[in-house]
Amino acid sequence: MSKSRNLIISTALASTLVAGPALAEKFGLGREALPEEIAAWNVDIAPDGTGLPAGSGDAFTGEEVFAEACAICHGDFAEGRDNWPKLAGGEGTLADKDPLKTVGSYWPYLSTVWDYVNRSMPFGNAQSLTADEVYAITAYILYSNDLVDDDFVLSNENFMDVELPNAEGFIIDDRAETEYPIFNVACMSDCKESVEITMRAAVLDVTPEDEGTEAEEVAQTETEAPAAEEVAAAEPAEEAPAMAALDMELVAAGEKVFKKCKSCHTVGEGAKNKTGPGLNMIVGAPVGAVDGFKYSKPMKAAAEAGQTWTEEELAAFFAAPRKYMKGTKMSFNGLKKEADIAAVIEFLKNNGN
Amino acid sequence: MTDDTKDFAPSRRQFLSGAAAAGAGAVAGTAASAAGPDPLITEKQPWAQELGAGVDETPYGLPIKYESDVVRRNVEWLTADPISSINFTPIHALDGTITPQGCAFERHHSGAIELRKEDYRLMINGLVDKPLIFTYDDLERFPRENHVYFCECAANTGMEWAGAQLNGAQFTHGMVHNMEYTGVTLRTLLEEAGLDTAGDLKDKWVYVEGADASSNGRSIPMEKALDDCLVAFKANGEALRMEHGYPVRLVVPGWEGNMWVKWLRRIEVTDHAVESREETSKYTDTLEDGTSRKWTWAMDAKSVITSPSPQMPIKHGKGPLVITGLAWTGRGAITRVDVSKDGGKTWETARLAKPGEKMALTRFYLDTTWDGEEMLLQSRAMDDTGYVQPTKAQLREVRGENSIYHNNCIQTWWVNKDGEAENVEVS
C-alpha cells in the first residue's frame, strides 16, 4: 500500500473539513456515555491489535471449540460445507479463473479474524465465545491454513507477530487513474462493424422460475378458493381432541425461542432440510427419519433402534444435545431454561403436529 | 367480487418458454384490433353494478392482487442460507424512480431483526470531546433533512462478470432501490459530540456498526461522514421497514450499499480504518493479476433497460413502443442516457423524465416505433464528471473477471421477432 488515502479525496469534499466543528451549534441532546457502556459495545479490533483483550488459546484447543461451534457450517477442517464460507486453503489461487478466498489465501489482517469471530460468530449465537476461545479458534484457523503448528499458542502478546500471506495483496481504489481517463467516449454511429451474440443466459438456465404465473393462476381460480379453504379448515377441527392441549401463548413464546434454532432448522409451510433437518411433525415422530437428511452415526443408530421423539426425549435433547447424544451433528449448546424447552416443543407441536 | 378479466394476456411463463410465441403480439389487449363490439363495454360488468370494498377493509393497503407477481425475488443458489442473503427489487415492473419499501431489495448478514424504538440506543464514541448516547426520541429533536438517494449493493450485476447468466433485469440489476429519506445529518451528530479532540480531520475515520447479530461494521473517511451522510429514520414518508434497518439506518449517498449500516447502533471516530470483515475479505475487488482493490466505495455510472427485458416481453406487436430504464451514478448526477437497438453499432439519445439528481435514480424513455424485427437493446449512462458507462469488454480489459463487485457494464437484451427478450453478451 504505497498510496495515502488522502490522494483520492476529491477536492469537492475537502471543503467539508474546513467548516470548523468548533463553530457548530450544540443542541444539548443525548447524555454522556458511561465507561461500562462504551466497554460493552466498543469491541472492534484495529489491524495494529488495538482493542485485543488479554487472553490466549492454542490451535489444539481451538480444534475442539471449532468442532463444536463452527464445523457445522465451516467443516471440521475449515474447508466449508455447502455454500458456507471456506476458511482454509486456496493459497496461490487469487489470479486463477476461480480464486478460493480464505483467511489463509486472501484476508490481509489477523485482527479481522479475531474481531469477526468475536463479534459476529457463531452464526445464530453471536458473542457467546470467551476471549480465550476466540484466540483458540483463530489459532486453529491459522493451523488449518498450514501457517502455524498445532501446538501454537496465540495470545494478545504475540498477536502482531503473525502476518497473513496476502497482507500486501491489496491496493487502494485506483479507478481514478486506471478507468476514469478511458471511460469517457460515447460513440454515436458506426461504432463497430459487426455485432455477434457471444453468450446467452437461456443456455445456462439458472434463473428462478417465474412465480408470477402461479400468482395469476391463483387469481383466476379464486372463486373456487373459499371452498378449498373450508375443507382445509374442517380437517384440523376433526382432530381437535389431540390438539386441545396446545397453549397458544406458549406457542408464541416458543416461536421466539426458535430464533436460536433458525440458522439450521426450518419449520412450517415449505420447511426443508438446511444444516439441520426440517422439523415439521417432529414431535412424536421416529428419530432420524426426516426424508433426505444425512444424520450422524449415533442418530442413525437411534433410528434403527426404533426410538421416538416423545416430548420427554426432545426435552432432554434440547437441554444438552451433545450430552444426550454423543456425536450428534447438532452443534448447539442447549436451552438452559426449562420454560424455553417447554415453549419450543409447544411451538413445534403447532407446526404440522 | 368475481374476476372476469383473466383471459387477456398469455402468462409470462408461456412467453419465456416460447409456448405462446406464435401470434402472441396480436392477443394482448389492444383496443384498436377489436373485431366486433367489446363485451367489456357492451355488457354490464359486475364491478359497475355491485359494491366494492369499504374504507376500513385494509387499514394499511397493499398492492391489488393482480400485481402479486411484482415482488422481491431470491436466487436460492447464490447463498448458503436466506438469513444471510440478498433478494432483488422487481425493477422490471416498476416505473418512475421511487422504489416502494415493500419491494425494495433486502440484504441481511444475520437476518432482519425486530428492534423497538424504545429499545434503540445510538452511541458515539472514540475521538470525540464527549461520548454520547442518543435514544430514538433524541434523534427526532435534531434538525431534519429530506433527500432522495439510490442504494446499490456493490455486488449488483456481480453474477454477470463471466458471461450472461441471469435472465431478467430484476436479477441482473435488482440490487438497487431509491427512496426519499428523512433523517439527521451524520455531521450534526458528530458535532454534537464534538470533534476538537480528533484534531486534524483529514486522516480520521468514522466506524459505523449495526445492532444485529452480524454486527456489520464499516469504516468511512471523515470527509464523507461530514459531507452528506444521513442518519435516517423514515423512507418514502414512513418508518423504515424492518428489513431496511428499522428504526434507524445510515445513508451513505452514492457509495456501496454495505456501508449503509442498518439498525445503526454505534459511531466511533478513529484514526484508522478498522479493516473489518466486510471491508477486507468481502467488498474488495480482485484484479486479473490476483491483487485486489480495497476502499472502492463509490458506485460508478450505470444504466439498464427495464422494459422491454426478459421479464417484460413486448406483447403488442409492431408499432409504437416505449423503451424505458433506469440510470444512476454515485459520483454526481446523470446527464444523458443513450439507447442502442443494434448491440452498440449506433446510438440515439433517450429522454430523461427529469434532469438527473445527485446520487438518485434517473428514469429514461425512448419513445420509438418497433418494426417487428430483432433488436439488441443496450443503454449507456453518462454523468456530470464526463464518465461514460463502459462495456463489459472494457471493464474486463482493466479488471479481468474476478472482481465480483462494481460491475457497471452496459447490458444487452436480445429481443426476438415475437417480442421475447433474453440476457445476452455481444461482441
From TrEMBL, chain A:
Residues 1-24 form the signal peptide. Residues 57-145, 249-352 form the Cytochrome c domain. Keywords: Electron transport, Heme, Iron, Metal-binding, Signal, Transport. InterPro entries: Cyt_c-like_dom, Cyt_c-like_dom_sf, Cyt_c_1A/1B. Gene3D superfamilies: Cytochrome c-like domain (1.10.760.10). GO terms for molecular function: electron transfer activity; heme binding; metal ion binding. It holds the Pfam family Cytochrome_CBB3. PANTHER family: CYTOCHROME C (PTHR11961). This is Cytochrome c domain-containing protein. It comes from Actibacterium pelagium.
From TrEMBL, chain B:
Gene3D superfamilies: 2.60.40.650, Oxidoreductase, molybdopterin-binding domain (3.90.420.10). One of its GO terms (biological process) is sulfur compound metabolic process. Residues 115-275 form the Oxidoreductase molybdopterin-binding domain. Keywords: Metal-binding, Molybdenum, Oxidoreductase. It comes from the Bacteria. Residues 293-411 form the Moybdenum cofactor oxidoreductase dimerisation domain. Its cofactor is Mo-molybdopterin. It holds the Pfam family Mo-co_dimer. The keyword Metal-binding applies. One of its GO terms (molecular function) is heme binding. This is Sulfite dehydrogenase. It comes from Actibacterium pelagium. The lineage of its organism: Bacteria, Pseudomonadati, Pseudomonadota, Alphaproteobacteria, Rhodobacterales.
